[in-house]
Amino acid sequence: MRNKYKRYTITSALPYANGPIHIGHLAGVYVPADIYARYLRLKGEDVVFVCGSDEHGVPITIRAKKEGKTPQQIADTYNALIKKSFEDFGISFDIYSRTSNKTHYETASDFFLRLHEKNAFKVIESEQYYDEEQKEFLADRYIKGTCPKCGFPDAYGDQCENCGSTLSPAELIDPQSMLSGSKPVLKKTKHWYLPLDEYEPWLRQWILNGHKEWKPNVYGQCKSWIDQGLQPRAVTRDLDWGVPVPVEGAQGKVLYVWFDAPIGYISATKEWAEKTGNDWELYWKDEETRLIHFIGKDNIVFHCIIFPSMLHEYGEFILPDNVPANEFLNLEGDKISTSRNWAVWLHEYLEDFPGKEDVLRYTLCANAPETKDNDFTWKDFQAKNNNELVAILGNFVNRVLVLLNKYYGGEIPERGELYDLDKELIAYLEKAPEIIENSLDQFKFREALANFLELARAGNKYLAETEPWKLIKTNPGRVKTIMNMAAQVVANITVVGEPFLPFTSSKLYDFLNLGKLSWQDAGSVDLLAVGHKVNKPELLFTKIEDDEIERQIKKLKSTALENNTGKENEIAAVKETISYDEFMKMDIRIGTVLEAEKIKKSNKLLKMLVDTGIDKRTIVSGIAKYFEPEDVIGKQVTVLLNLASRKIMGIESQGRILLAEDKDGKLIFVVPEEGIDNGSMVS
Hints:
With 683 residues, the chain is α+β, with helices and mostly antiparallel strands. Helix content is 43%, strand content 17%. The strands form eight sheets. Strands 17, 18, 19, 20, 23 and 26 form a six-stranded antiparallel β-sheet that branches.
């Protein structure tokens, strides 16, 4: 594998320019991509690492309308913030571009025209929701309604954020336009579609037979999509923000963002090549180039099925050799939510923890959600810093450099006779880079980081077993060998640690007074020549105290609470006033839960049998996250009885149990203070 390719094109998902970068983005995409790019460069490989702001999404137009700005103003603001955050955090893109620039518009238009000329698209007329008050077709994210699967009242037209189900606007119950609040109507419109169903045989061969080495979560999702049967997918939409569709009869239409955004990788490479004098086509059309996409799991279908189909149909382009997508990172046990401000924002972290870029890089890599969702907590962040970076890595480096300066004025002493402990350490150092390399080549970044830290553990163990501070007076010749060996471990840490901890590695190069080394240099016990002088050290890492962590936890909870409060007020303000008579139509009674069970294939829903005093009825409620079945059996509850029944996950739900949500998002049953007969009315 390593000798097959002459160059590498590495892409990482284009972040939407409608908000800052948070730790979920970093752990899922940008930290692993940066580790891999830095690793390849250290090996001397020809690498272009591209990214840029995705500026044509509906979330941007939503934010623009909300803030009374143009989409371009929103994109300009967040492109600048995101780009600076990445730079300050040490993400080593060769270019960070944007999809609103001229090169991208030209590239995306040319790509569409090439496929259009090959008759790759189907023009299909269909009915889509239209806002008659605003006089425009509604993107899926501009439509809200009740989820047909879990009953959540604020599901979007493309996804329910409560149960995670993928939806279409037509499936929503009581759809509503987010622009005007009115009920949208269906209106005919035509769009250009990519017939993915026609690529099924090729995709089955290319992915399911040709890429069995892909990560199980990636391969499995691709197989599921293909086995379910692919459908034609629109590549255009009715919108006034984006790349205009460059054919006749497409006025008022732009390229759909999922079609336009991945082409941004190509346009960014063109921009980089023009600035550096390279040939961009070598990085996209030469079979000796390896193309790798780093993404989150929500982008697997676009990068493994749709974009490859586009490239395949176009011809000339290479296809992705691997797509090492990660799962999601949660925060303090809860899903990261930008709308609730339940997130750790990169630009704020950099302000709150100056000089601790590598502490976050280390923690996010150590907790990377590579095969399943994982969790970030501030307490674990503190522990990773204090117990691993400070106590293991920082402690070892500091001890070695302090002793070198104390005993030999900072000069590397000569080695004498080698003992078994020395030989064991040499054998370990020689194989350590290959162990780390094997993990990196398989995109196992957590494993690679753990193997990297083993170098420092081995160094600490060596010093603890040899105890040079005890031998310095009785056997100074032996101490010279020990300190030479320990210094060589520090030098190896400096080299192989660079992909993971670039700021720390830079400090170590300064401490060691050493010129830049390559990956191939690692594994040697002669990186520091006898007589070479090192500098006096400073602490690599400092402890993070409890009060700093408590401050971050308090900040997280308070900002999320403020955001929730604002959101609740906003929702309350837009609800229509109802009359007294309408209120009196609601039949609300006290009942008792007789039976309860979780619904298969759902982690949100409980099916309950409720005695309402007048009958026993089944009610499905999205409370399984907060209550086990045994928690609710025998509990008195308040039930809205005359709510129209609906099928949820194939089960007819006949009513709604009333609950309140506290400031922390916890659900609480609305119940009478005292036990009361079932069927008692609430008025």
